[in-house]
């Protein structure tokens, strides 16, 4: 014999506020949007427009991530020139993960491509990234980036 107990949940003020707490705030959603844009900027670099592409990516960063990027700027271009490829990506999904103080963690899934000279089909790889976003001067900036796996 199977016994099932069903209870109904009344809509109340406390229940309504609990469901709101499960949804990201407008500010957190801004962090997600900024992080998704920055993930695409960091993974879309062409040799022909390297200076402007790199500057665009750098402008969305702060802290350690910014320092790391600046220290490897020449290395990235050198590798791209040696391999005769450009990097291109598109955002598939982005989501709010958590917030601790002024740091918001977001997840972004992108399709990243190596567009190799004289090769008809680019090599595309899905990538999952976790970005730490910090609000600075009214803008959300990426301070850390971690690859969390591929599909």
Question: Can you give me a brief rundown of this structure?
Answer:
This protein has a four-stranded antiparallel beta sheet with strand order 1-2-3-4, covered by helices on one side.
Please give a structural write-up:
This protein is α+β, with helices and mostly antiparallel strands and 151 residues long. The chain is 37% helix and 36% strand. It contains four helices and four strands, in the order ααααββββ. It has helices at residues 13-21, 26-42, 50-58, 63-83, and strands at residues 85-100, 103-116, 123-136, 139-149. Strands 1-2-3-4 form a four-stranded antiparallel sheet, with helices on one face. β2 and β3 (123-136) form a beta hairpin. α2 runs antiparallel to α3 (50-58). The chain is globular and about 50 Å long. It starts with 12 loop residues before the first helix and ends with a strand. Residues 1-20 have low confidence and may be disordered.
Computed Rg? 20 Å
Average pLDDT, to the nearest integer? 87
User: Can you count the beta strands?
Assistant: 4
Instruction: Give me the strand/helix succession.
Output: HHHHEEEE
In DSSP terms, counting alpha (H) and pi (I) runs of 4 or more, how many helices? 4
* Biggest sheet architecture: 4 strands, antiparallel
Class by alpha and beta content: alpha+beta
Q: Main sheet: which strands, in order across?
A: 1-2-3-4
């Amino acid at each position: 014999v199977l016994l099932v107990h069903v209870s109904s949940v009344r809509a109340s003020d406390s229940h309504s506020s609990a469901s709101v707490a499960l949804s990201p705030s407008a500010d957190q959603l801004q962090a997600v949007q900024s992080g998704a844009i920055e993930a695409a900027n960091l993974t879309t670099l062409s040799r022909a427009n390297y200076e402007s592409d790199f500057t665009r990516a750098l402008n969305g960063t702060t802290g350690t991530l910014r320092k790391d990027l600046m220290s490897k700027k020449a290395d990235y271009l050198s590798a791209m020139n040696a391999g005769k490829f450009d990097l291109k990506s598109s955002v598939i999904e982005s989501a709010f993960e958590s917030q601790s103080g002024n740091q918001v963690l977001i997840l972004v899934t992108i399709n990243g491509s190596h567009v190799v000279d004289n090769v008809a089909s680019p090599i595309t790889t899905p990538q999952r990234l976790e970005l730490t976003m910090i609000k600075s001067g009214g803008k959300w900036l990426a301070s850390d980036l971690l690859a969390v796996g591929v599909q």
